[in-house]
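Why this split exists: single-chain examples teach little about how molecules sit against one another. For that reason, every record in the complexes split bundles all components of an assembly together and asks for one structure covering all of them. Below is a record exactly as it appears in the raw files.
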Amino acid sequence: MNDIPVLGMLIQLVGYTVQVITSNSTIIMALATPIALGALCGVMNERSGVVNIGIEGMMLASAFVGWYVASLLGQVIPSEPSFVFGATPAILTGVVAALLTGVIASTVHAWLSISVKADQIISGTIINIVAFGVTGYLNLLISTHAPPSGGKFAPFQPPTPVVDVPIVGWILRAVLQQGPITMIMILLAIGLQVWLFRSRWGLRTRAVGEHPKAAETVGIDVIRLRYRNVIVGGLFAGLAGAWFTLDYGNSFQAGMTNGRGFIALAALIFGRWHPVGALGASLLFAAALSLGTAIRTTPPTGSLGSLLTPIPEQAFAALPYVITIIVLAGVVGRSIPPAAVGRPYDRESTA
Amino acid sequence: MTPRKLASQLVLPVGAIILALLVGAVVLIASSPLVEGYLDPLLPITTYSALVEGSLLSFNGLVDTVVNATPLILVGLAVGLGFKAGLFNIGGQGQFLIGAVTAAAAGAALSSAPPIVAVLLALLAGTIAGAVYGFIPGFLKAYTGAHEVVTTIMLNYVAIYVVAFLITGPLRAEGASFARSPDVGNAGLPEIINAGLGHPGHIGIIVPFLVVGVAWWLLYRTTIGFEIRTVGANPDAALYAGMRPRRLIVLAMTTAGMLAGLAGGLEILGVSRNMPAAYSTNVGFDAITVALLGRANPIGIMFGGLLLGAMRAGAPLMQTIAGIPVQMVDLLQGVILFFLAADILVRRVFRIRAAGVGVDELQTVTRSYGGQTTTP
């Protein structure tokens, strides 16, 4: 085969990808939000030595509770969307309910994996199965007399001159043309990066995740710190849940998190347990999703288009999951987890 | 096994089931205003008796129970075998689906071949496809360190898209009103129990009971079973004793995929006889409950599978009589699992002092999380 057309097609593919990413930067950042928040939840857990497979279930439960509380309250106190992100008392209460759900679920996980010393992966799996069962059950139970949606946040609309700035306009759009949960996620990722590596809490957390015994001997309460971090992580998962039903959409479907909580774990590993790295990895997954959609809706022209369009749509839908497997297999380089991850801490043990 | 030891083995799962039914009763009473419009403290009795009536108290119900238990026991063994080898195979779902779609394709191709040949070849195709789908995460785990929990979950999603692509594309039956694969014809499993329409007592229901026996013999009476259990209990010791943990991990995952693929084949060839694009199943996750209930022991898994099979068989009648969504069964399962993991609660309630009979026995799963492979 002549290699000139191949090279030409490769250049066209790069150009097409750049075009898709720059023109869809807002939606990519939005789609990355639950993945990144889930990964930040993972950072809180795994940096202090606890594995959390239950992020998916925590998100699903929070998405349901947040949505249902907002719907109920929307009937009691109907109000016009305010000028700040279109927020209403109902939506804000829904977010608080979602956060509380995340806290409750993560407290269960903390208790099972830190105090009971049950297997942490089994504990997380239980949270996933319970969340799937309970939300599916309740969703069907209320479906016959479901209240109308309690509404959702509206994205911020930056002034036109800002988003039309040449060269960096697409980045400004990605950051500014967003709902509040996405903006909080960006700030959290940056803040957590600083806290983890520049604060006393961060040093202690990393110590507990690497060598709990040594941390204990210098006076750190390992059990308490782990509890606190796992529960704060639950807040992040709860916020991710609220994103599904109060920011991105305004309805609930059974199993709507669709594996985002697990992709978050891969983003965590790909980002090497760094908050900003995890955000970067989440953006990569979201870009892959967006690229798959774009190839179906606005396929590239010429020989590249005729090469890509016959690929079945399911192949693109499966792409983020396949990328996750490839990332985990370490094709992109091996990353090293915190040394004590997954091991319950036992004050009495000699190890 | 002495009766006393057997009793101590049974008390935790039975205790967890009793506590879960109590929690379920509270949920049912709390949801009765939504179902019936008033608070009904007797709703749990109505619901649970409908569940029992639909699964055990009629001939049809009993057939349904065993038919439902068939894939649950096989996939439960696939999960349990992983536990024995220190692996958490959440990929039963994907392995089942790939086995099912392959059996559906092979069955459709062989629909006019002689029945015995068609059935055996179609089952074999499903089993092999499942084995391949189990081999992938096993290989990745053993040679790259990618944790099987995340890779198998990802492969579950990939399997859904593979099925959707095949059934809406190359496998789609011509002239069917909705997207489904062609009927399997002669490759369908013959019915051995006549329980009427919608209660297919196919010959495949004897397969899980045979496989339970083989699995028990393999795990506890052969060298390979001993090696698998040793790798699960202590990979370092296994390595020191000259075993090869990596090869055993691949072997265990491939065998697990094989069992789940066989289950998928039996389900398509025996029950639905073609595969719709919207084929949905919860068997992979139910199987985790089955394996934990049976504490990863083949005999225990058989009883766990029959219990969950009964719950699934009784659920439709529960929905008709008591108006409770079938998802109640998912909820009950989750609570059973919770009490199995939080065995400390069960022990307190039932005042058990026996040590080391809970899920904690399986505390090897998390160890290898996050890329730490066993040394070569």
